Amino acid sequence: MLLQDNLQEVKEGRRITAKGYAVNHKNDTFKPFLFSRHALGENDILIEILFAGICHSDIHSARSEWRQGIYPMVPGHEIAGKVVAVGSQVSKFKVGDYAGVGCMVNSCGECEACKRSQEQFCQNAKTIFTYDCKDCFHDNEPTYGGYSNNIVVHEKFAVNVPQNAPLEKVAPLLCAGITTYSPLKFSGVKKGDKVAVAGFGGLGVMAMKYALQMGAEVSVFARNDKKRDEAIQLGAKALYVSTQECKERFNFLISTIPTGYDVNSYIDLLEFGGEMAIVGLPPVELKTHIDLTRLVFAAGKKVYGSLIGGMKETQEMLDFSLKHRIYPETEIIGVNDINQAYENLTNGKAKFRYVIDMASLQN
Ligand code: NDP
Ligand code: ZN
């Protein structure tokens, strides 16, 4: 029924009605929310969302842990679904194709960063994030994410997903996948390297799988040993519960930790010339700080931050993942379970990635 309504709206050039789950303030729980998306433009596609992953960034955003959020907020930037309508100028997709959408839905397309397909760093500050963002291409209306039945997106910001791909596994690749793949590639991780992954959740497990595929030996850092067996089964050499107990040194270290922690103790674990990529983004009030004296005297080591990845690299990551069958560890839930999933992800009770089956929205 909803889909038929949407197709009629497309035909008449009207706004697209949508149904999702939203919070109305930072302490709220998720409730059903009816809203509308901008009409299908000539370069846009309309996707019926089938699966949406829950990223820890969704929790930071919904709870205004980085900055004051825009409410009502429908999070979700790990989106996989089916193309149900295409604008007149669309060339990458046809109706019936599968598509994925990650953290961005538009950018200026003209600046140096956009030209290099680093759209997440649009120099004209026109990176439009999938939710919790004002869309300057559409009268500054707020964007709404993937915990919903559909999304309208510029075709440049959707990736092609082959028909035989497992969509529930593809969804988390659109953020957890690209965010870990990109720095591993940037740092040129290769066969024989020693890699450490700090924070072994949705992102961490992807970082480990990519690093293993690139031929590295991987150790994991967690805050307890609950996932030791899983880590070893999935190919880790060791799981450490503190930096002090680790006597190894690493060529590359990626931190996906979403809470306050001592960054310096991880920098200490780098080999001479080693690199550390920071992707975990703790709440702003939990100030993390890098000890400059220690860093200067550790010269030869490099520490950098990394934000998702550009659209070209996102497609590359997806193709690489499917080719090598590198998939997230997922647990499928319904929309009614979102609140519990948030609790679990905050209280150390979650395993890796929750993925919402959007068929549950119809019930
Ligand atoms: P998850 O909650 O799935 O995983 C985080 C993991 O870190 C959990 O396993 C958690 O353990 C563990 N952890 C928490 N504190 C510590 C600690 N002190 N030491 C070691 N491990 C710890 O989150 P995600 O993987 O989805 O996201 C991780 C972070 O990355 C978030 O801050 C998110 O916002 C950020 N992010 C950044 C992106 C970017 O582009 N830079 C893109 C996407 C996400 P436990 O289970 O015990 O809680
Ligand atoms: Zn994310």
Structure description:
With 363 residues, this protein is an alpha/beta fold. The chain has 2 domains: 3-164 and 329-362, Alpha-Beta Complex (Quinone Oxidoreductase, Chain A, domain 1), CATH 3.90.180; 177-305, 3-Layer(aba) Sandwich (Rossmann fold), CATH 3.40.50. 25% of the residues lie in helices and 26% in strands. The protein contains 10 helices and 19 strands. The strands form 5 sheets. Strands 3, 4, 5, 10, 11, 18 and 19 form a 7-stranded mixed sheet that branches. The longest helix is centred in the middle third of the chain and has 20 residues, at 167-186. 48% of the residues are buried. The model has no long low-confidence stretch (mean pLDDT 97). Bound molecules: NADPH dihydro-nicotinamide-adenine-dinucleotide phosphate and zinc ion.
Task: Give the uncertain stretches in residue-range form.
Answer: none
Rg, nearest Å? 20 Å
Main sheet, how many strands, which sense, barrel? 7 strands, mixed
Fraction of helical residues: 25-40%
**CATH superfamily grouping of the largest domain:** Medium-chain alcohol dehydrogenases, catalytic domain
CATH architectural type of the largest domain: Alpha-Beta Complex
Kindly list the characteristics that best describe this protein:
363 residues, alpha/beta, Quinone Oxidoreductase, Chain A, domain 1, Rossmann fold, 2 domains, 19 strands, binds NADPH dihydro-nicotinamide-adenine-dinucleotide phosphate, binds zinc ion
